[in-house]
Amino acid sequence: MSKKACSEADDSIIIAGLGISGLITASLLAKNDFSIKCFEPMSKSPKKQVVDRRTTAFLNPAIEVFKEIGVWAQLEKFAQPLSTMEIIDFSNGQSSEPAKTRFNAKEISISQFGFNIPNKEVVNILSKYLKTKKNIECNFGAKIVSHYGYDDFISVKTESGSNYNGKLLIACDGRNSLIREREKIKSFSTSYNQLGLVFEVTHKFNHNNTTTEILENGGPFTIIPLKRNVNCNYSTIVWMNYTKNIREICDLDQSAFNKILQEKSYNVRGTIKLNGEKQVYPIITQFAKRLYGKRVALLAESAHVMPPTGAQGLNTSIEDIRTLSKILAKARSEEKDIGGNSVLMKYNKSRLNSIGFCI
Ligand SMILES: Cc1cc2nc3c(=O)[nH]c(=O)nc-3n(C[C@H](O)[C@H](O)[C@H](O)COP(=O)(O)OP(=O)(O)OC[C@H]3O[C@@H](n4cnc5c(N)ncnc54)[C@H](O)[C@@H]3O)c2cc1C
């Protein structure tokens, strides 16, 4: 891409990808009065989008970010407090008594560890929030196919051939990030030959704000409570196991599936039934060796992918977003170049060790 071919540079931050991390990034930076240009290959039309049936256990620091953006009051309506964490370990076989342990948030003098919120509600509320901001331009159906960092600005090109300029490009383009690839930033990946099966259930017993993780050979089966304003108990299940086993379970008809669900949950929530569709996600661990390139910052799954166990993935991404936002605001207040190497090295140094610890 030639410098001459590009239109005039401006002070915008360019965000590649409006998945859940891109939306949170765009919202927080827009709230902090940065001028933002977002690019997302998926269509804007909800009909053409695949609904994300996952829920996220947002830990308390993530909730503070939603409060800072100003969307917590809307999200709270869908937010189930997570007060108790219970682990039941059958990995020594079903014949012996399982090892059981429970942690309550009160033990560390807090009301809850965090809140479980459906991803689709987070996406809806943040998408509506972005529409209210004048300092943000969202381009849907627009995949970034190339980018080039110059000394004083960065230029990106979309699939349709249009060029856009800014000071910094933030890669929220997911685990197969092409921006990371073009920057020649190495990433290390481990595959477990496992899938995560996600679905919603109704159950007889009250969940009492408890998350229950049942450990068995093959992988954890986790029951995470959901908030509903109806007289019935709902939870999300994340069931991790070997690819072959999950595929077989998915092929079962509803009655056979409910039977295996009842056995697998050891009756901890009483009669339990599938409610709605199932979704399957590959389980990997991956992390990038470096979180920046020339006028480029990597965050969220472009930087790190973690298995769902322990609710680390998106919470770690939100910590990346919060850190980068603070560093950029400070650089702006000191009239520094927000895409400059020294600013991005600071972000890299702040986050790389913490992400490594999680893995
Ligand atoms: C079963 C399961 C349960 C989980 N539960 C939790 C939990 O409880 N707590 C937690 O913290 N984490 C959890 N996670 C992790 C969390 O869901 C992920 O971290 C998160 O969904 C990743 O979002 P993302 O925006 O980084 O990536 P993605 O959702 O992959 O978004 C990337 C976006 O970039 C776009 N894109 C791709 N290429 C380009 C391009 N060239 N130009 C522009 N845009 C592009 C894509 O279209 C996409 O919209 C869970 C994960 C799984 C699998």
Describe the structure.
The chain folds into 2 domains: 193 residues, FAD/NAD(P)-binding domain; 136 residues, D-Amino Acid Oxidase, Chain A, domain 2 (2-Layer Sandwich). Helices cover 29% and strands 33% of the residues. The protein has 9 helices and 21 strands. Strands 5, 6, 13, 14, 15, 16, 17, 18 and 21 form a 9-stranded mixed sheet that branches. A hairpin with a 4-residue loop joins strand 10 and strand 11. The site of flavin-adenine dinucleotide has 33 residues, from helix 1, strand 2, strand 3, strand 13 and helix 8.
- How far from one another are the termini? 37 Å
CATH H-level superfamily of the largest domain: FAD/NAD(P)-binding domain
Beta-strand segment tally: 21
The overall number of domains is 2
Strand-residue proportion: 25-35%
Architecture of the largest domain in CATH? 3-Layer(bba) Sandwich
Class derived from helix and strand content:
alpha+beta
Uncertain residue ranges: 2-7
CATH topology of the largest domain: FAD/NAD(P)-binding domain
* N-to-C order of helices and strands: EHEEHHEEEEHEEEEEHEEEEHHEEEEEHH
**What's the CATH C level of the largest domain?**
Alpha Beta
Overall 3D shape: elongated
Instruction: Give the averaged pLDDT, no decimals.
Output: 93
Q: What count of helical segments does DSSP give?
A: 9
Q: In angstroms, what is the radius of gyration? A: 22 Å
Named once each, the bound ligands are: flavin-adenine dinucleotide
Biggest sheet record: 9 strands, mixed
Q: How much helix is in the residues?
A: 25-40%
